[in-house]
């Protein structure tokens, strides 16, 4: 489970900012909250916050030089301040894995890892697993099985590679849980809602022939009231060249509508239906595994009631028995209130991002404002009481200006 994420000098985040997923309301004894919603104006930095999580995951999971960052560069620093370009970028997570808290983080410059550290807190006592300065790594006394591998480690630690990434090759026991969290404990479904991405994700989720998975997915499609009664994944052969023998077989999703089970291709469905279907494999997988789901613009083309129901899957302990978490950005202010008599978001689950006068993004929680229970959070947010809304100019004057 993710307790917090901190980043600094990454894209629009110049100064270190922290997203907390720990309860802040009286009487809440849960170790983490299941949901965190991030609001803000366009270009405020909401997507950059999630990109920080994505970047951290990519740097841990793969060779740093094979990430999606600019070739030859390990960081994307704040660009509106010359001093920031010469500083490192910081990424830190606090996790709870099998009941044990961990803190893992690193600082990367353009072409090197400056610092890296990992601590565990068994029985609430801090325990060093490793600390790194440049290429010098110091191990804690509990990492006993590393001593026999020190010579190999010294050869393998490159200035532009994270030490935690070596777990994949060396299977260093005490470090493996944290590495595994980055490898499989966080899902970030593609924001591209193109048909090929949906075909791939849905067919992959259903590839093992588990009929229970199919039933759950169809049930959620039916519950969304989009007219779908069933779903099929068919193998289709398509020509990929000029010659007739150049064909490729791929799996494609077909959606069945109405009493006659009329088949519809994905491109014939609405944008909202495609977006809902694109999310379902990741949603169902994290609910089963207790993982983290990170979604940018979760409300894209979805009706507010449908978005609220999706959030409710994570808030309902009967459904979310494995303690999965959902972190998302949104402009849907209706989630700040009640729907059908139920509160969608708790007040310690709402965060705002706003750019300051220097153009740097700042992250802060709704609880900083200590809102009363009788206050209309949606109305006050749109009225500017919490910031993180656009300061709009005169659209008429701008439109008629010569």
UniProtKB/TrEMBL annotation:
Residues 35-336 form the ATPase AAA-type core domain. Coiled coil: none annotated. It comes from the Bacteria. GO terms for molecular function: ATP binding; ATP hydrolysis activity. Pfam families: AAA_21. InterPro entries: ATPase_AAA_core, P-loop_NTPase. This is ATPase AAA-type core domain-containing protein. It comes from Amycolatopsis rifamycinica.
């Amino acid at each position: 489970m993710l307790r917090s994420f901190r980043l600094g000098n990454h894209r629009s985040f110049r100064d270190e900012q922290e997203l907390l997923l720990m309860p802040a309301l009286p009487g809440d004894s849960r170790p983490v909250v299941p949901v965190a919603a991030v609001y803000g104006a366009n270009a405020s930095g909401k997507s950059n916050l999630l990109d920080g999580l994505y970047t951290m995951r990519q740097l841990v999971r793969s060779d740093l030089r094979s990430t999606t960052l600019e070739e030859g560069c390990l960081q994307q620093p704040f660009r509106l301040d010359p001093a920031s370009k010469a500083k490192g970028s910081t990424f830190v997570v606090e996790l709870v894995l099998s009941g044990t808290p961990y803190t893992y983080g690193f600082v990367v410059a353009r072409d090197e890892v400056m610092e890296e550290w990992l601590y565990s807190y068994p029985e609430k006592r801090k325990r060093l697993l490793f600390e790194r300065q440049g290429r010098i790594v110091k191990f804690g006394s509990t990492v006993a099985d590393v001593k026999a591998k020190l010579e190999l480690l010294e050869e393998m630690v490159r200035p532009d590679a994270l030490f935690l990434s070596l777990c994949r090759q060396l299977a260093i026991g005490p470090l493996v849980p944290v590495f595994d969290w980055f490898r499989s404990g966080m899902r970030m479904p593609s924001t591209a809602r193109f048909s090929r991405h949906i075909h791939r994700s849905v067919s992959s989720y259903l590839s093992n022939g588990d009929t229970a998975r199919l039933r759950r997915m169809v049930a959620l499609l039916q519950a969304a009231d989009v007219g779908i009664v069933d779903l099929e994944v068919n193998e289709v052969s398509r020509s990929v060249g000029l010659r007739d023998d150049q064909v490729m077989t791929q799996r494609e999703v077909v959606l069945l509508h109405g009493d006659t089970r009329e088949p519809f291709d994905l491109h014939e469905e609405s944008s909202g239906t495609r977006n809902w279907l694109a999310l379902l494999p990741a949603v169902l997988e994290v609910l089963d595994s207790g993982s983290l789901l990170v979604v940018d613009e979760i409300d894209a083309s979805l009706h507010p009631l449908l978005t609220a129901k999706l959030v409710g899957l994570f808030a309902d302990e009967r459904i979310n028995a494995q303690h999965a978490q959902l972190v998302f950005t949104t402009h849907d202010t209706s989630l700040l209130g009640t729907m059908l008599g139920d509160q969608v978001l708790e007040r310690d689950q709402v965060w705002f991002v706003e750019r300051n006068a220097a153009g740097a993004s700042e992250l802060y929680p709704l609880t900083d404002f200590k809102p009363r229970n009788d206050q209309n959070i949606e109305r006050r947010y749109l009225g500017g009481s919490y910031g993180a809304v656009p300061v709009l100019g005169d659209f008429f004057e701008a439109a008629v200006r010569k």
